Amino acid sequence: MLGHPDRSLRLSGASNFRDLGGYQSAAGLPVRWRRLFRSDHLASLTAEDAQAVQRLGVTRAFDFRGTGERAATPYHLPGVTQHALPIEPTVVQGLKDLLHAGQAVTPARTVELMQHTYRAFVHDNAARFAALFSHLLESDAPLVLHCTAGKDRTGFAAALILLALDVPREVVMQDYLLTNDLYRMPAFDESRAPREVLNVLWRVQADFLDAALHAAEQAHGGIDAYLADALGVGAAERRRLAELYLAPSGAR
């Protein structure tokens, strides 16, 4: 179902806008289509894009961008309530710190910074993801979650949702890596960083998501325990999520 024709919405102003529907849980029940969407930021949507989102019935948007990012590129979509769940970006500052310390910015060091960022999602930003799940449990009204590129903060959030719905981890990883096929990277400024470094920054790697999942496992003894203990998504909440977002086998 990874390359299902309904997955990518192919919007002009948001290349990474896609549906989490169709992935099957361990029990064989598919995630409902047209309920859960993930995306890069929505400030560049065209009028036609906005109409397409409206036709999808999206009424909720969960924005993980930091305060400055939101202020720099705000957006408004009629009928869509925005919920700010800010997670401040840290990788660029990490790169600046390396340069200030006289250290070379290499692809390997950039990977380390990305992994550190993903571990921080687990250790420092659990409240944001817990708030997301609180909203998810309220209703099954169609929603979109996004950050700037829709790959890191959004990628971890989408992974948590699918894992809470008992989608197998290897499928969750496949969806995460789909960003590399869809996301249109911004124009490179190779005077500021080597292309090899920029490729690390603007793409995703299994090592990144694994860093977060391993951090959750080490701190809590497993993903199920992390969901329950850190995010408030225990057995009862997961049953509710399944009722809202999983469809009978064979249904859309």
Look up the CATH topology: Protein-Tyrosine Phosphatase, Chain A
Query: Which class do the helix and strand fractions yield?
Result: alpha/beta
DSSP strand content: 5-15%
What is the overall shape? Answer: globular
Relative helix content: 40-55%
Note the quaternary state here. Answer: single chain
Please compute the radius of gyration using only Cα atoms. 18 Å
Residue stretches low in confidence (pLDDT < 50, at least 5 long) are none
Distance between the termini: 12 Å
How would you sum up the major sheet?
A: 5 strands, mixed
Tally of contiguous helical segments: 12
> Based on the structure given, which CATH architecture is correct?
Alpha-Beta Complex
Q: Overall pLDDT, averaged? A: 92
Structurally, the number of domains stands at 1
Mind explaining what this structure looks like?
- It is a single chain.
- The protein has 252 residues and is of the alpha/beta class.
- The chain has one domain (18-245): Protein tyrosine phosphatase superfamily (Protein-Tyrosine Phosphatase, Chain A, Alpha-Beta Complex).
- Helix content is 48%, strand content 7%.
- The protein contains 12 helices and 5 strands.
- The protein has a 5-stranded mixed β-sheet, covered by helices on one side.
- The longest helix is centred in the middle third of the chain and has 18 residues, at 107-124.
- The chain is globular.
- Residues 127-167 form the Tyrosine specific protein phosphatases domain.
- Pfam families: Y_phosphatase3.
- InterPro entries: Prot-tyrosine_phosphatase-like (IPR029021), Tyr/Ser_Pase_IphP-type (IPR026893), Tyr_Pase_AS (IPR016130), Tyr_Pase_dom (IPR000387).
- One of its GO terms (molecular function) is phosphoprotein phosphatase activity.
- This is Tyrosine-protein phosphatase.
